[in-house]
Amino acid sequence: VQLVESGGGLVQPGGSLKLSCAASGFTFSNYFMMWYRQAPGKERELVAQISFSGRSIQYADSMKDRFTASRDNAKKTIYLQIESLKPEDTAVYYCQVRIGQVDYWGQGTQVTVSS
Questions:
Q1: How many helices (H) and strands (E) would you count in the chain?
Q2: How many CA atoms lie within 13 A of 85 on its CB side?
Q3: Which residues, 6+ apart, have CB-to-CB distance to 29 below 8 Å?
Q4: Which residue of 2, 43, 47, 85 has the lowest C-beta tally within 10 Å?
């Protein structure tokens, strides 16, 4: 199993980013996929959960308005679009999949929101 995030970077407040996570080594369309983030000095928190097809997506309450998650099963990739970025969105963003009782994580992609 391999998960590789990309798309992070330094962005000014109010800007937007689209993160990607490319998956391999498992039957991608058979599993829910998750986005998490971890801000400096804070615990990792769930951002979004994406169902097998991508038609059902659950967001953390605080992220329902500016975050849009999606998946492309043909490309074995999930995405996270973040709008109107705020300094408090600064974090490492991870994708995750649970296969059996094992959680697999990518290496993360850093998002820094600063002027």
A1: 0, 11
A2: 23
A3: 52, 53, 73
A4: 43
Question: Tokens for 44?
Answer: 């990792």
The helix or strand, by DSSP H or E, that contains position 19, with its residue range, turns out to be strand 17-24
Whether 35 has a pLDDT exceeding 90, the answer reads yes
pLDDT in tens, 49-90: 999 999 999 999 988 899 999 999 999 999 999 999 999 999
Answer whether 69's CB lies under 8 Å from 35's CB.
Answer: yes
Distance CA 43, CA 73 (A): 30
**CA separation for the pair 29, 8 (Å, rounded):** 25
Instruction: Tell the residue number behind the tokens 């804070």, with chain if given.
Output: 42
Q: Three-class SS of residue 30? A: helix
Nearest to 67 by CA among 88, 81, 46: 81
Report the distance separating Cα 104 and Cα 97, nearest Å. Answer: 5
